[in-house]
Structure formats: structure tokens, C-alpha cells
Amino acid sequence: MSILRMSKTLFKNLFHGPYTVLYPMKQKEKFDRTRGKVKITIEDCIFCGICQRRCPTGAIQVDKSKTSWTIERLQCIQCNYCNEVCPKKCLGMDNQYTAPSKGSVKDEYIKCMNTQSPNE
Amino acid sequence: MGQQIIQPVTPSDLLTEVIKLKDAGYRLVAITCTNKEDLELSYSFDKDYELINLRINTDSKTEVPSISEFYPYSFLYENEINELFGSKIVKINIDFKDTLYKIPVKTPFGKKEGDE
Amino acid sequence: MGKRTVVPFGPQHPVLPEPIHLDLVLEDEVVVEAIPRIGYIHRGLEKLVEKKDFQQYTYVAERICGICSFMHGMGYCMAIEEIMEVKVPERAQYLRVIWAELSRLHSHLLWLGLLADAFGFESLFMQSWKMREQVLDIFEETTGGRVIFSVCDIGGVRKDISTEVLTKIDKTLAGMDKELKEVTNVFINDMSVKLRTKGVGVLTKQQAFDLGAVGPMGRASGVEGDLRSTGYAVYGKLNFKPIVDEAGDSYARTNVRIKEMFQSIDLIHQCITLIPEGDIKVKVTGNPNGEHFMRVEQPRGEVVYYAKANGSKNLDRLRVRTPTFANIPALLETLKGCALADVPILILTIDPCISCTER
To answer: In 3D, which of C275, C323, C262 has the Cα closest to residue C67?
Structure first.
């Protein structure tokens, strides 16, 4: 009958409740593989600069003299290429996104090159 | 994956070759242009998943006849190549005269003075 | 002869997903001629090949378009692999086909929703997009992104899918099959849909062939041509037939796309049963040298990738000819003689993806 054609879907929708998530009160859960933002374990980094050369947008800056690794969060396209070419495997992908903001968001990580042992 | 044949032709032979392909039932797939030392136009035709390419090596001063009398929808490709590469394809059935894309730079893919 | 007026359609219009401009010449509400003007999203992606090397360009090639993004990446990688004569392992080819067919499914669901919205049937639009969310969740779980996947690479794919996730995908799609049957039943049999689409924008078989229509637009007019039959990637081992309709109006195009959706679900099921174990990637060294034309079947039709390399790390030339570019002349022909109220429907039946067209 032509009026009741969508009846099964209609009944399900009446009793199911909303299919959408009440954002920002509740967040949708992300999966493990979601590419949110790049994270680095700075102690393993040798500052070779391969990630800086291979980044398609040029968002990474590596400075060997200051032992710092900087990333411009809003220029990063979360493509994961830096993670694949890193020889020490110190880069990884976090599954939470960077929050939006005005201007540039630069995150700088500096490695402490302390040669004194802590008990001295 | 089907065959791919590349066949070089001269601008004056172009129309005779195109008439032969049209009578055999080929359809036009794309017209491509590359800019190396000079302009290299490739006309691609297809029938039953076999691809035949006609290749013309020319420069931006030679006039190339348009094939829009036989394949009327080639006007979009030829206008784009005229605008981006600075070639001279004449007698297109609908000629936009460089207003198709409205980009501020003239012939961005074409040769610039003092080129590498 | 009545008085002629020129009505500009676009670039901003509620029914268009992307900006395109058409000057419609009207004679008392009947369209006589249409003059297109494109170029609102020209980003110069073909010129970017001179700056980025050929491996970095994989990421740029995927971002040409949001809806057909995986197939652009796949076509680019396959063109470079043919030039460098790299043999991709079989498991990677099966995974590529699974992702490609899922792309086709979500693109057609998006299109069905937009078509329902174009004639005001908003609840059907919401139902189609609700089903599409399930496909996008599958993408996020397996590749990491909902729209841009970054999973195709020269020499294979970057991420693997485990067997439990494959069985889960199979079950989700089987459940979606039943819901899909009910929603598409409305599209095919409802009287209001039929009134707006039957007999509107008829393209005969000879016209479609002469104008070079590709994809579902050409197949709905009787022109048989589905590039998946040439057997690239692993399509040669799968069992399917191209879907062709004879009528040539908007109703036939809707029908072809709906049947293609069910065919995609069936193809994914065949792939999941046949997929072998093995590597997913092969190491690629050196630079490409040579040229090749690669053709892939996107949800909208046939896309041609022409890559020319000269032995250095940057390609000489990359040319992408997208199916919407080839369907624009067919659109201009169908617009002649239709009423002004049918113009949005006709533009949507070619499935315009203007960001692909203008790169």
C-alpha cells in the first residue's frame, strides 16, 4: 500500500531515540586508528631531519643545535608520512584532534642533554 | 588492461586521422598537453577498452585545426589548453577566448622568458 | 517567439554541493540554451607536481576531491606503478578493491540524499545519510580518517585489516542491505519521485555516444561501458556485470545507481571470502621514467590519469581528466527544452563533483 511503504523504518525511528550524539556535552568515541595529531617521544629523537624534509606541508621544524622539534599544529594534515619515515620510530599518532583556535599553534619539544648523573 | 598505442601525426594530417577513427566508432576520451621543450598534444580515443593516442609535437605559434566538427564536445578541452598553455587551436565551435577559467596569470603552464 | 531572458544559476545555490555557474537562456520558463562557466575552485593542483616529489604527491592526489578521494589516490598510485613496473602483492589489491567499493557505496548514498533534498523530500535525505554514517564509521575504524584515508601508497597499502574486522564489516553490510532495500523501494516506486524524474532530461543512445557521456549517465542511456570489466586490480577475478538501462531519463539514472549500490555490497562480500594472506606492501626504490595512461572507474564515471616522468624525483606532467568534465556537454544537451524547475534535478543527475573537475 503506497502510504505505508516506509512503515518499518518509521516505527523504528519513533521508538529508537536520536541517532545523533549530543555534542559538546557528550563526545563520540574515537577508534584506535583515528589520525588525530602527531605525538613524539623526544628522548629517542636523534634530530636527523628526515621528517622535516618529507612533510608535504612543511609543518615540522627540526633544530639540531637547540635539540628542539617543533610542529605547527594547524598546518599539519595528519597524513602520517613523518611516522613512516622516522628511523628511530619515535613518532606516533594520537587519536584526539587539536582544538580549533585563531592564529598559529606551535608545539615545541626540547630534549634535555644533561650529562651529569642525578646523584651528583 | 587493454592496449595502449601512441601514434605520432603532423597537424595537417590530424583531421584525416580523426575522420578515420570516427568512422570506425571510436569515442574521444581526453586531450592532454605537456610542456617540455615545446608543446606536445595527445588526443586519446577509445573503443572497447582499447586506447589509441595521436601525438602532435608543435609549438605555440603553429596553428592546429580543431576537431570540434567531428567531436562537438572537444570544445571544453581545447579551450582549456589554449588558456593554460598558450597554444593556437583555431576554429573551435564554441570559443571562449580565454575566459573559461578567469585566472589572473596568462598561460601559467606556458613558457616564460628566461626559462630553465 | 516569446521574449528571451537570461537567468544566472549559481555559483551559490542551495541544491548545488559545489559552485558552478550556468547562464540559462529562457523563453517563457522553458530553457533554450545553457552556457557554462567553471573555475571557482581551481587550485592549481596539476602545477604542484613540479614542487612536490612523486611520493609526497600521493597525499595531494587524494585531496583533489572529498567524495571520490580514495579512487584518486588509487589511480595515481596505479599509474606510477605501471611506469615503474612494480608488482603489487595480491592481498593489497584485494584491500584496495574493498575500500574502492565502499567508496562507491558511500558516494551513491550521498547522491541519493542530495537528490531527495532537491525535490524537497527531506526525510528521505536524512535516512540515506544515516545509513552512510555506518560506512564512514567502517572507514574510520580501518584507515583512521572518515573522508581522507591516506592509506594507498606506491607499492601497496599502508594499513592492514584483520580477519575479525573483516567479518564485522560483512555483518554490518548485510544489515545495511535490508535497510537499503526499504529506502530504495521508496525511490523506485513512490509516485512523487516518479512525477519529478520520469521523462525529464531524456538522452538517446546516439546522443549519449556522440557527446561522450561516461559512467552511470551513459549507462542509463544504453551505452555499455564499465571500466571495471578490463580487470585492473583484482576485478578480473570477481563476478559481476555492468548495469545498463535503456530509458535514458533521470529515473533510469537513479535506477542504475541504486542497482550499483547493491552490486557493490555483493562485490565486497566476494572479496572478503576470497582474500588471501600475504604482504601488503612492496618496497619501491628509484625514480620513474616513462609515461602511461591509467583509467579507473570512479563512482561518477571514467577517470583518466596521464603521468609523464623523466627520471628525476618530480614528475614532468600529471593530467587528471575527471568524469564530470566529460559529462558537462551531455548536461548542456539535456537542459535544452526542459522547464526551469527541473534544472536543479538535471544538474544533480550527472552527479557533479566540481572540485574534481577543476583540480
So the answer is: C323
Task: Establish if A49 belongs to a structural domain.
Answer: yes
Nearest CA-CA partner of C226 in C241, C212, C237? C241
Yes or no: is domain C43-358 CATH 1.10.132.100?
A: no
Chain segment A66-79, per-residue pLDDT in tens? 888 888 888 888 88
Q: Model pTM?
A: 0.87
**CATH code for the structural domain at B4-90:** 3.30.460.80
CATH number at residue A59: 3.30.70.20
Q: What subunits make at least 3 CB pairs under 8 angstroms with A? A: C
3-state helix, strand, coil in chain A (%, to 5): 20, 20, 60
Whether B100 sits inside 8 A of C304 (CB atoms) is no
Q: Can you give the pLDDT at residue C328?
A: 84
Position B116 scores a pLDDT of 34
Query: With an 8 Å Cβ cutoff, are A56 and C60 in contact?
Result: yes
* Dihedral over alpha carbons C209, C212, C215, C218 (to 10 degrees): -30
Could you say which of C210, C232, C358 has the minimum Cβ distance to residue B1? Answer: C232
What secondary structure does DSSP assign to C298-349, as a single string?
ETTEEEEEEEEEESSSS-SEEEEE-HHHHHHHHHHHHHTT-BGGGHHHHHHH
Place B111 in a pLDDT band, splitting at 50, 70 and 90: low
CA distance B71 to chain C (A): 7
Amino acid, res. C158: R
**Residues C274-323: pLDDT tens digits?**
888 888 888 888 888 888 888 888 888 888 888 888 888 888 888 888 88
Instruction: Classify C126 as helix, strand or coil.
Output: helix
Q: How far is CA C91 from the centre of its chain?
A: 24
Whether residue C115 contacts residue C320, with contact meaning beta carbons closer than 8 Å, is answered with no
**Prediction ipTM score:** 0.80
Amino acid at B114: G
